[in-house]
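Researcher: Let's run the pair from yesterday's discussion. Sequence first, then tokens, for each.
Model: Starting with the first of the pair.
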Amino acid sequence: MTEEVQTKPVKMKPRGADRYQYLTQTGPGTPTGDLMRSYWQPVELVDALPQGAAPRPIRILGEDLVLFRDDQDRVGLIDRKCAHRCTDLALGRIEDGGIRCPYHGWLFDVHGRCLDQPAEASPKAKDRIQMKSYPIHEAAGAFWTYMGRGEPPLFPNYPALAGGSEFRYTTRWFGDCNWMQASEGNIDPVHTSYLHQLELADAEMKARWGVFANQARPELAVEETRFGVRLYTSRDIEGTDRKSLRITNFVMPNACAVGGFEGYLGEGGLTMLWDVPIDDQHHWRWEFIFHRSGRLDKDALIRQYEAEKAEGDRMWRAKDDLYSQDRASMQGKAYLGLGECFSVHDIAITQSQGTIHQQVDEHLSSSDIAIVRARRMLDEAVDEVMAGRDPRGVVRTEADNDFRDMVVITGEIAGDQQKEDFCAAYVDDARLFALAPSSESN
């Protein structure tokens, strides 16, 4: 399998058999790159940049930037190359209200303005210098940035990003492949019954993961929402006339809202995933695991994740040796043979599709309806951006920044009950993700 796929960046949307292949390209000036830049994207963990920390080199959407916290506790994201002679500002000094280039002492603030040119004769020369910079918003344990044109939209009030840290666990993983195949894996409801299947040893595990073990042929349906696509996945429950119903969401343009680890705590939880392009060959998988109760078992999460991570939020498992797959465990304990961490399953399997998945080689089936609809929605959104309009899901008013309609739930329905009616009851009830009283505010 080819490990590196070199593609020429497209400036216009192609048509034909590879109609959606251009969606894999997100660098500056590309149609999908402009789409991605229309939304807030997570760029770094807040814990990675405490006061006094060294600048952090950031690569996102094919751009090389530097994230820094100045000596007045302000955070900035600017071009990594100094505007003078292109020195790497990740080597810069944090002082005097900004980041100072170590080569000739030019000083830049968090907005990319040049504050000082100590070796220049003219005191006004610095006023003509403006570095590329992007706004920063801190939320949910991450720094987010808006890299698009014009005024930034409102930061979306998604349920998984609400409340203090006690309600949520935030982490990320390095993905050694294109963002799109990773994102599409998140909205593939059939794979959960196979890829993530584990041997369920006790009642607690069955309560937590039982829905993933049901291999009954699912009934799939999708509907458009103002923020993306809602997915309904229903499966027969053996020995009854009832069905399990799992409601998840594709969130434009590179996120999803699904049920995950938090499911053992019952209703009021969801996991949101963002697959953020580093460039066309790599991405970050961001995870925001939330429950309204504030009773997430973070210790269990940390133990599981740390057992699978190496330095730099990468898996220790390497694709060169098939991710240290344990084929003996595949006889019943773990379907994939890569342990119990769902994140590892997802990353390994999407990386196995190649650096950039070639859509022309695939044979889509009826179980891929969400992926087909998401591709079409992305394609339509690119048209909107190219026409100078906001794409679906961009929020500009407080009235639109209420996402109680982002329903994520796994439940049971009677065989003749309508799934849309089941969902509508939660859309109308603001209590689904209402936060329990916070101990942090007491």
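Model: Moving on to the second of the pair.
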Amino acid sequence: MSSSSRSAKTALDLAAYLDRLGIGAAPSALPPTLATLRTVQRAQLLAVPFENLDPVRGVVPALDVAALADKLVRRRRGGYCFELNGLLSAALTALGFTVRPLAGRVVLGVGDEGWASRPATHLALAVATEEGIHLADAGFGAPGALPEPLPLCDGAERAAHGRRHRLVRHEDRWSLAALKPDGWETQYVLSTTPTPSVDSEVANWYVATHPRSPFTRRLVVQRTTADAHLALLGEPPVNGTTERAELTTTYADGRSARRSLTGWAQVAAALREELGVGGVE
């Protein structure tokens, strides 16, 4: 067993993690297969929300496995990509998978051709299975999030849970696109080589502290459910609370519903009851 596997197993209580995900199986019943990877990624995407309550309040999230387990598993909070995929990576490593982190650039709004204008502030995973290397990602807070792993090969395309994605290999990057009513839309581009953990630490610090980061300026909470995507966008907190926000629910058939939330009591209730963020008072 590698030192990284021993470390992940020491720091992460797999039984507690699987319970958090609602997977009714012992870790020993989950071999490092593609079926297990699909089960775990999908379950984490549904169970653990994307949220930036820490950065928007001036707190830089810790990325060590013990801190991730405490926040996302024990306290039932959510997080953003560095936390969510950090937790997923630790769990998959402890289950026996070989995992490589890949830095990504979100290109929504600029398209694939504008990738160089965006910083590398996303993190995804390349995971080895008996059926080849797959892209896994439980940390992309958008309706175009990948619901199941996708083979990491040029032209790979998959429809799952009402969404369709494809990967395109360029000379120095991968592009992940989601099919929308008006055609394919690139979500992010990824490095073709593994990302050192120190680079993720730097990117995490930037995302959590830079005044132009979207995660320091307003509350952003998103959750994927079995049949919809929920997105809450709020004003920056004042004295720790957000007084106004908008909650948009987008359904698999394209319909959407939107409502305004006024006062922290309404915002907090939506965070707890609809978006699944624990520890919100």
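Researcher: Give me one sentence on the second I can quote.
Model: The mean pLDDT is 93.
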